[in-house]
Amino acid sequence: MSRNQEHANDDPYRSSLPDLASRIYGGSAAYANDELFAERENLLKPEEPTYQPYSFGHKGQIYDGWETRRRREPGHDHAIIRLGLPGLIRRLVVDTSFFKGNYPPEVSVQGCAVEGYPDPAELEQADWEEILPPSPVEGHTRNVFDVDPPHRYTHVRLCMHPDGGIARLRVHGEPVADPRWISDRFDLAALENGGRVTGCSNMFFSSPSNLFAPGLARVMGEGWETARRRDDGNDWVSVRLAAAGTVERAEVDTSHFKGNAPGWASLSGCDAREADPDDPASWRELLPRTRLQPDTCHRFRLPVRTEVTHVRLDVFPDGGMARLRLHGRASEDGSRHLVTRWFNRLPPSQARAVLTGEAGLDAAAAAALSARRPLSEEEALPTELTALL
Ligand SMILES: NC(=O)NC(NC(N)=O)C(=O)[O-]
């Protein structure tokens, strides 16, 4: 774990991972033991925090964050967040912007993974695992912590030692889909299914990860937008699919981009199981250069159907796009990858709950299968797991 109180932009890889807790992806501030001064929901707002000096409500100065009262008893304050995208957490940003005389001297973060829809009282009883031990933070600062916990979490708990206020909590990480919710044909590029941006020519105005976010973009800022190009090249983004598979249909959505949609787009694919994605010769055209309209969701059936692990979108010459959907089917080894990646990363308590619940194993058999992890992606799946799909 490393700590950096300057700025997250030193390592674009981790900060460009999606914020698993963001309200944009359905994150929810399920509980806080106290929020007298400012509400816990502010923690998950996608926009940067703001502050207006000398603005007083009934409880005190108004802050854009989560703020508890001054503690007069021993202990600490905590909030529980349900991740919109459960996954592997790689970077925490504890943003104390504008909290100067009232930030917590230390914070800690734990994670848990639970089946179903627990209420706050049930969540308090979950098996919480340490992600960040109590660690000092500065006021009015983006406090960045790189972390590598081994498990896929559905919830995180943020603790302030002993009390205070935090503007935003960002939980950057790699979403890991629950394969029980993946159907035969699905969006192989969607973040929620495990698609991940691997490269991009330009992200001046907004992040390419937005292309693969759930739902529709509400405004231009929720898409991917490049700067105006002043050379002969073209902009592009590449994505590693959630699983190896065949893309059958693409949705190329330029909604909200009216004066800045690309004129044309093309798609190409690469199979990293047998070729190097860094070698331009490894890429094969899936959709030829095709004219686009501004502010339009285009749907294309792909003329070339071949198994790929990566897809690249080229836009000509530049511009912005709201969403890119790549609907298709996982290959046999791709399906196996989706199941093993999920199952191997479940904390032991959730693995046992899955196996004794839906899979119907007794406690001893569940413990034995759980202990066989990590399962190899090369071998056939145990029947108890295929039965869940
Ligand atoms: N001026 C303050 O910010 N005071 C208090 N906080 C709010 N929100 O008024 C406090 O005690 O932390």
UniProtKB/TrEMBL annotation:
InterPro entries: Allantoicase (IPR005164), Allantoicase_dom (IPR015908), Galactose-bd-like_sf (IPR008979). Keywords: Hydrolase, Purine metabolism. It comes from Actinopolyspora xinjiangensis. SUPFAM superfamilies: Galactose-binding domain-like. Belongs to the allantoicase family. This is Probable allantoicase. Residues 26-175, 194-330 form the Allantoicase domain. It comes from the Bacteria. One of its GO terms (molecular function) is allantoicase activity.
